[in-house]
Amino acid sequence: MPGNFHRPGISNPQKRTADAQRTKEQSVNQQAGAKQQYEYAGQPSGVSDMPRSIRENYSSEQGDLLYGLGQERFELLQKIYPGTQLENIPVQYIDSMNTAKMECAMNAVYNGSASDEYTYFRKEYQSSENVDAYIHTMRQQDAIGEKDSKFNLRKRFEDYYKLEKELYSLEKELIENDESELNDDSLRRLDKEFYNIIKRGCKAGIMSTLLDGSKHHIHFSLDGIDMDGVVTKTRSNPGAGMPAYTGVELRCAYRLRDQLKDKLHFYENGLEVSAPWEKNPELWRKYIPKGAQKKDPPDM
Hints:
Structural class: alpha/beta
Region (Disordered): 1-53
Helix content: 40-55%
Strand order of the largest sheet: 1-2-5-6
Shape: globular
Order of helices and strands: HHEHHHHHHHEHEEHHEEHHH
Low-confidence stretches: 1-47, 294-300
Strand content: 5-15%
Oligomer: single chain
C-alpha cells in the first residue's frame, strides 16, 4: 500500500519529508468491490435551485479526482460511500498517482528497479474495477509533463532522490560521527524540492482535465479551508514552510475557471455550492496571478 512512504533502507529525511506531506494529504488506498455509478451535475456549481450532492456528481468510472484538506476529503468520501468501513472505501486522490511515481522513482534510484508507475498503480489497486479509468487519468496528468518538463513527476522525483543520495554521500562522515541527519541547509533544499514536485503534480491533475480525451472531473471540498489565506498565500505547509497545497490547487482552478466550467465542482458539507470566487468575488479580486501582474497596468 502506498499509504506509508517510508521503506527500510531509505533515508530519514525522505521519511520525514514524506510524513509531513501525508499529514495534509491523508489517504486511504484500497478500492471497494461494490460498484457505484453516479451522474454528473448538469449545471455548474450554484446554478441549480436544489444543490446536488457529491454522491450524485462523483464518478469513479470516469477517474474523477477529489481535492481539499485531508480529513475533509475523507469525510466527503464517506458521503459517497455511506456505511462503508474505512479500509473498504474506494479512494482516488491525486496523491495516489503522485505516490506511484514517487515510489517508482525511489526504487529506481536506490534499488535499480525499472518498474513503471502504471504497472505499480495497477498492482496496488488491482481489486479496483475502475483502475483503468484512473490509469487513464494518470496518463493525462503525464501528458502535461510531456508538454512542460517541470510537470514530469517521474523525472523530477528521480532527480530528487539522486540529490538526496548525493547529499548523504557528501555528508556521510559527519552523519556517522554525530548520528544526526543532514545539515539544515540540505534538509531545507530537499524539503523545498519535494514540495515543488508534489505541488506541480496536484496542479497537473487539474490542468489535465482540459486535455482532449480527458473524462475526469475535479471535486473540491471547501470545508475547513481558510479562503483568506488561500488568496493571500499566507497559509503555509508545515513541512516546507511554503504555501499550502490546497491553496495552490484552488488558485490553479481559479486561473483555469473559464476553461474548466462544468468539470469543476465545489462542496460544503457534501452539497455542491458556488465556486469560492463566485461566492466572494471581492476577496478573489485581491488575487492577481503572476502572469497577469506582468501584462496588466496597475489601474486595470
